[in-house]
Every structure is written in C-alpha cells, then in structure tokens.
Specification:
By secondary structure, the chain is an alpha+beta fold. It is built from 19 helices and 10 strands. Among the domains are: 162 residues, no CATH class; 141 residues, no CATH class; 101 residues, Sandwich (Tick-borne Encephalitis virus Glycoprotein, domain 1). Helices cover 61% and strands 11% of the residues. The radius of gyration is 27 Å and the shape is globular.
Length: 661
C-alpha cells in the first residue's frame, strides 16, 4: 500500500503540472483545454487512490508506515481509525488535496461550457494550488514514508482526537477551507480575462455558499467538541486556531451579502473581488498557522518543515491577488453613486465594514504575539477580554443592522416609513426587557443584548407576516401553506431570513452563557455534598476501571437537587499518552431552565478526595439550536433556483440576509 500511495502522489503531482500548462495553452487550442479538464479528473482519481491506500494501511495496522505508527494502534476503536486519516499533519494535508481535486473536477465539469471563456484560467489557478499542495505532500510530509523497522504496535492517536466530534469537525473545517478555492479561481479568471460582468457572480455565489455552509458547520461542531471534551466550560475561547478558522467565514459572509449590491446596482465590484480573494488567502493563512506551529494552540500541530513553504505560498498568493485587482482597478470602479445613507446599498456597505472590522480585530489579536516577539523580543499574549471588548460592540452593531437592513429599500428609504416599521419591533424589545428586569435581571449589557435580539426578531417576523398576508389574499391559502409557499418561491431571500433567526437564537445562548454563568471548584471527600446555584450534588466515591489500552479514573456523583440522577465524570489515560489524558465530562441539559449542568473531574488524592469543577451554563442549548436553524436556512438560500439568471435590476429583493436578498 505504501508503494502504491507514493506512486499515486507522484503521478498526481506530474499531472497537476501538466494540467496547468495545458490549461494556459487551451486558451487557443480546444484539444489542450479538454485534456486539462480530463487531467483534473485524473488527479482526483489518483488522490482518491492515495487516500484509499492510506486508509487501508490504517485499517490493516501497517506499522511499517511512519504515519500509521504515529497515529494509530492496535487498541484504538475501529471507528477512530477514520479519524486518524486526518488526525496527523501528513494525512490532513492529503485530505486537503483530495477534497480540492474532487471539487475542482466537479466545478470544471459543471461549468466547462457555460463559462467557456473563464474555464482555461480557472483550471490553471486550481492546478497551481494543487501543484503546491502536492509538492508539499510529496517532498516535505509524505504520509507513506516508511520506517526502517516494522513496529509491533503504534503510538495511537492523540486522546483528544478520539472523540465522535473529531469524525466530523476536521473534515468539515478542511472542506470549508478547500471550498474557498473554487470562487477564488473564478474571481481570478474574471480579473485575468476582464469579464467582470454578473456571470462570474452567479457561479461564485453558489460555491461561496457551499464554503460558507461547510465551514460554518465545521466551526459549530468544533465548538461542540471543545465544550464536551476540553473541560473549561465554554465553546469558544478565542484560541488562535479557532480565530483563523473564523476569519474566512467572516469575510465570506460579507461577500455573500455584498454581491447582491453588484447584482442589483452594479456597485461594490472592488469590494466583492477583494472579499473573495481575502477569503481564500485567509484559508491558506489558517492552514499555515495550524501546520507551522508558530502559535500555541490546543488544535495546532508541532513545529514542522511545512511552515516556510506555506508562508511562501501565502506571500505569492497575496501578491498575485493584489496585482490582479490593481490591474483591473479602473474598471472595478462603482457604477452609480449612493443616493442616500438610508438605502439598502448603504446598509450592505456598513455590513461589509462591520464584518471586515471584526475579522481585522480578530486577525490582529491572533498575530499580535508574533509581532510583539519580532519587535520587542517578548511574546505578549492576547486573551478573550481583548476580543470581547473590541468585537462585542461590532457584533452588537451587526445584530442591529440585521433588523434595520431588511426594512430599507434600494436607492433611498423614507425616514418616516422606516421609523414606522421599526417602532413595533423596538417596543416589543422594550417589553421583553421590562419582563426580564421584573424577574431580577439587572445587568445592562445583557438587557441591551436581549433587547437587540427581540428587536431584530420582530423585524424578521414582520417581513414574513407581510409576505404571508399578501399570498393569502392572492391565492386564499391557510397560514402554514402560505408560509411554505412564500419560502419556496424565494428560497434565497427567506432562507437568509431563517439564517438570521438562527443567529438570533445563538445570540441568546451567547448572552446567557457569558453573563450569567456560575462556576466553582470543590474539593470533597466521599459522602460530602456541594452546591452551585439550584443544584446540590453528593460525591460518593472514586472508581478506577480499564478498557482496551485505556485506564479510567472517575468520580461517582449523585445529583440530589432539583432532580436525582447519577453522574460519572472521569479521565481517560491512554497508553503512550499518560501526560495527555482525555476527559469524559458530564453535561446535563435541564429543560425547565434551558441551562447546562457541567461537571468536570479535575483531580483526586490518595485519601479518596476529589476535586470537581462545576459550571452552570444558562441558555447554552440555544447555541446548538440556533446553529441548526442557521444551517437549515443556509441550505435553503443556497438551493438552486429554477431560473439560473439573475432577476432584472428593476425588480427589488428585500433583505440584508446571509443567503440573499
């Protein structure tokens, strides 16, 4: 298998180089272009073979291969063998290249004839990206490198990765990174050829939506994994690797909104090209940060030889992107002016500024330790307080814009009409704040956040109400059929509104878990009780047991109040990973109060006592519920419409939405 995998990678490298040359030649020679298209499919087939070879080696425990020996063992549950495929650096890069080859082949086959003038350069750009990754894989971190001797057993996968979340999170996140390559290639091709009309937008939007959805799902699953595995009671810690994964998603979100202005008014062309170029380059930056080990993170690999290669490629990509935009700068100027600050165009521009501002603040906080070390010789860390203080107001502004934007019209909006539309949602928010104040919530930041959530929800429901009312009058349907009909006839617009509703639900969870979380650590002896909030727990005893290759130490705890149940938080010590134990954390969602009781075993002593860390995390279930709603809305918004061409510019589409207007 090792020899087959090495040969497949070498042939894929050679074929990617050929495709690059043939695609450029294919501008004037149809035969070369067809050959390059077929060559993309060939690279996908070869890399599929390489992935199959590595997976077979993992499943058969071929410990003559270094990657297999370092990332698997005889004791590992078979299901986590699949996790080992992307659990190490070489395997994850192979997965990156494989997904790129599959998406590149699919994109070119789908658009080969419809976008004939762009396709030669699309193939060339994608082949250039493939060429870089295959050079790195073949010569710097080959997953099929042989060991001098065959080991009887492997080291096993990092215990933190032997979790169901790792079956989903890395492939989603890597696929999200990869997916930005497709819209980047079409944007680059449009700039090279000068075909800057709406056609490239139609193709690019579909692939950008795919990248946005997949990477968004990866971020959510990553948060769920961190919440259930790492033991610090949270789902987002502003870790450097979390940050760099968020960056392309933020910029991509801005692009998905901004392109609607170009579709309708021919404006923000420069913004759109800049945003999609930035999304791709930030995905490469994220890959560089994780692979180089230059920043300390629970998610990153150790320092390796691939860091300089990725840094060089990132520099080349940034320079090429900037050069292309500068080359076409005269024709990227806005067609038309902003007629009023109270217009949908202005709302979209403000949306861009806020999202890019959040992305820049996050990027600055992430790279600041490197800059401080380079300038002062001292690596200064940037923690969550910085991000919360800087990004918090920007996120609040973005939330409010989600409420105001859908009620604005193109070109200009009458202030009196806008205020009339906003009055009801604003009053609903005040009523909600009054009720929260009456039940004892006094924290100003939390009350402001809840007001914003209710206000925005009111404007979204107002849009749904108006559309349903019009449809019911027109066709005489009931409320539910009319609602389904409204969504079905304009999935892009109302799917985007559903995304906004999902984000509002997530905001409820974020506000509750950040402002009202309770936390305390207890050291208790068997039979002692301890309390936090409304919960009373009793520590019964420590226990120890073994599973294949794993030693477990747990604390048997009885929850006494308000419900009685048994909890067993425990630590898992894997062979060869004694210094990196995994944790089983008891997370109990209490439905009546919509909060999580979170119990983590921190440590224990020879006298039988245990140290237990307990959190009460209010409203966290709304984070996961909101994410599911947002992803559902994103799928609706991304679903292809019956018409492939954009509607005429004179037909308005309302809404500042993630999926469309």
């Amino acid at each position: 298998m090792a020899e087959f995998g090495r040969l497949a990678l070498l042939f894929a490298l050679g074929l990617a180089g050929y495709n690059l040359v043939a695609a450029v030649a294919g501008r004037r020679w149809d035969g070369a272009l067809t050959s390059a298209r077929n060559g993309l499919l060939g690279v996908a087939v070869l890399l599929t073979g390489a992935v199959a070879a590595l997976l077979t080696a993992l499943l058969t425990h071929d410990f003559s291969i270094r990657y297999v020996a370092e990332n698997s063992s005889l004791e590992m549950p078979r299901i986590f063998i699949f996790t080992a495929l992307w659990g190490g650096q070489a395997g994850s890069l192979l997965f990156w290249a494989w997904m790129l080859s599959a998406l590149a082949a699919l994109a070119v086959w789908l658009h080969f004839y419809a976008e004939a003038r762009l396709i030669p350069w699309v193939i060339a750009v994608l082949s250039g990206i493939q060429l870089f990754f295959l050079l790195v894989i073949n010569f710097l971190t080959n997953p099929f490198e042989k060991l001098p001797v065959v080991l009887p057993n492997g080291r096993g996968l990092n215990p933190l990765l032997q979790d169901p979340g790792m079956l989903v999170h890395p492939p989603l996140l890597l696929s999200g990174y990869v997916s930005w390559s497709i819209p980047f290639a079409f944007a680059a091709a449009a700039l090279i050829t000068g075909r800057l009309d709406r056609d490239w937008l139609q193709v690019t939007r579909a692939w950008a939506m795919l990248a946005w959805l997949v990477q968004g799902a990866g971020l959510v699953v990553g948060g769920w994994w961190a919440y259930h595995v790492l033991g610090w009671g949270g789902y987002w810690g502003w870790d450097p690797v979390e940050n760099v994964a968020l960056l392309p998603w933020l910029v991509g979100t801005a692009f998905i909104h901004s392109l609607m202005v170009q579709e309708r008014r021919g404006m923000l062309k420069l913004w759109n090209f800049g945003l999609i170029m930035a999304a791709f380059n930030l995905s490469i930056f994220g890959t560089f940060v994780v692979r180089s080990g230059v920043l300390t993170s629970v998610h990153s690999f150790a320092q390796s030889s691939v860091g300089p290669a990725f840094f060089t490629f990132l520099g080349i990509s940034l320079a090429a992107s900037a050069a292309l935009i500068f080359y076409r700068l005269p024709v990227l100027r806005t067609q038309g002016d902003f007629e009023s600050l109270l217009s949908r165009e202005a709302a979209f521009l403000l949306n861009n500024l806020l999202l890019v501002g959040i992305a820049f603040a996050t990027l600055w906080g992430t790279i600041f330790p490197l800059l401080s070390e380079a300038v002062r010789g001292e690596k200064l860390t940037v923690g969550p307080p910085f991000y919360n203080q800087v990004n918090g107001p920007l996120l609040l502004g973005l939330l409010l814009l989600m409420g105001v934007g859908p009620l604005m019209g193109w070109r200009r909006t009458r202030p009196a009409a806008l205020l009339r539309d906003l009055l009801g949602p604003a009053l609903a928010g005040l009523v909600a704040v009054g009720l929260l104040f009456a039940v004892g919530i006094r924290l100003t930041e939390a009350l402001l956040g809840f007001w914003a959530v209710v206000f925005v929800a009111g404007t979204v429901f107002l849009e749904f109400y108006r559309a349903v009312r019009v449809r019911r009058r027109a066709v005489g349907e009931g409320i539910i059929p009319a609602l389904i009909g409204v969504i079905g006839r304009n999935r892009r617009r109302y799917g985007g509104y559903i995304v906004h509703l999902g984000i509002l639900l997530m905001a409820v969870g974020v506000i509750g878990s950040n402002f009202f979380k309770l936390e305390r650590e207890f050291t208790v002896r068997p039979g002692e009780t301890f309390s936090l909030g409304r919960y009373t727990l009793r520590f019964e005893r420590l226990g120890e047991w073994t599973d294949p290759g794993v030693r477990n130490v747990g604390a048997l705890i009885t929850q006494v109040e308000p419900f009685e149940r048994e909890l067993l938080p425990h630590r898992k010590f894997y062979r060869n990973w004694e210094q990196t134990p995994a944790s089983h954390i008891e997370v109990v969602t209490v439905a009546p109060w919509l909060e999580d009781l979170y119990v983590f075993l921190t440590g224990w002593a020879a006298d039988g006592s245990a140290t237990i860390h307990v959190f009460v995390n209010p409203l966290v279930p709304f984070v996961w519920l909101g994410a599911a709603v947002a992803l559902f809305g994103g799928v609706l918004a991304a679903w292809p419409a019956r018409q492939t061409r954009a509607a005429p510019a004179a037909v308005p589409a309302r809404g500042v939405v993630a999926g469309g207007g």
